[in-house]
Amino acid sequence: MATLDQYQDKYENFKFERDDRGVLTVTMHTEGKDLVWGMKPDDELGRAFVDIGSDEENEIVILTGTGDTFIHNEELGADFDQLPAEMWGSYILPYVIRLIHNHLDIDAPMIAAINGPATIHAEMGLLCDIVLAADHAVFADQPHFPNGLVPGDGVQVIWPMLIGMNRARYLMYTGQVLSAGEAKDVGLVNEVMPREDLLPRAQELATQLLEAPKLTRRLTRRAFGAVIKDQLNNTLPYGAALEGLAAANYWPRTFKGAKLPE
């Protein structure tokens, strides 16, 4: 069992603050500014989810970002055009599986406070039980198909579950960007509000959830998570392997910032 003092300063890209009610706020960042996604945050977040989930003092988890974006910028740090299959199998494939499964293994209910564009790994927010979005936030899956990669790391299951297969396929093939309002209309987001209201509203909802018995809260989260896991169990490793096959033939040197509508 982990304790907050054991992981509070353990991760470079994630800040942890917990109040006396047991509400843990996890803030993603890069050197105190907007998070830049890459191999390091990917590895860290999957491991951080284990610590969060094994800390029984965490009653509710709020996941948010720093600055103007949730996850919108990426730096892969790769100086090669092709990704060796051995590297994918030994390093990236385990990251892919760990990131999704460890998120779902957290029994404390999770609230996403999406503070801005979520165009890279938007599913980190969308897998939370309650999803709040700033009114300037947008949602997309742009690092995959529009950049030469197969959307196989779980997004091929999660997006269709949330918005339907045809909408999801169109979004991923075309790089479509949904505004916060559009995301709410199709069921991705529960509430849209000014960014400054996000965390106060998340805290209000946490207070409401805390009124239920702890075991009820945790088992409810587990019940919903089991449905998603059932859909992912066979398709996540297969999809990730297909993504690796494509990546072995084409690997973008860098991807900085998804395209937004003008």
- Structural class from helices and strands? alpha/beta
Q: How confident overall, as mean pLDDT?
A: 90
Tally of DSSP helical segments: 9
Unreliable stretches? none
List SSEs in N-to-C order.
HEEEHEEHEHEEHHEHEHH
Strand order of the largest sheet: 1-2-4-6-7-10
Distance between the termini: 48 Å
What's the overall geometry?
globular
The assigned CATH architecture is Alpha-Beta Complex
Q: What is the CATH third-level topology name?
A: 2-enoyl-CoA Hydratase, Chain A, domain 1
Tally of domains: 1
Round the Cα radius of gyration to an integer and report it: 17 Å
What is the CATH C-level name? Answer: Alpha Beta
Tell me the total number of β-strands.
Answer: 10
CATH superfamily: 2-enoyl-CoA Hydratase, Chain A, domain 1
Largest sheet: 6 strands, mixed
What percentage of amino acids are in beta strands?
5-15%
Percent in helix: 40-55%
Structure description:
With about 260 residues, the protein is α/β, with parallel strands linked by helices. It has one domain (about 5-250): Alpha-Beta Complex (2-enoyl-CoA Hydratase, Chain A, domain 1), CATH 3.90.226. About 45% of the residues lie in helices and about 15% in strands. It has 9 helices and 10 strands. The strands form 3 sheets. A 6-stranded mixed β-sheet has the order 1-2-4-6-7-10, with helices on both faces. Strand 1 and strand 2 (about 25-30) form a beta hairpin. The chain is globular and about 50 Å long. The N and C termini lie far apart (about 50 Å).
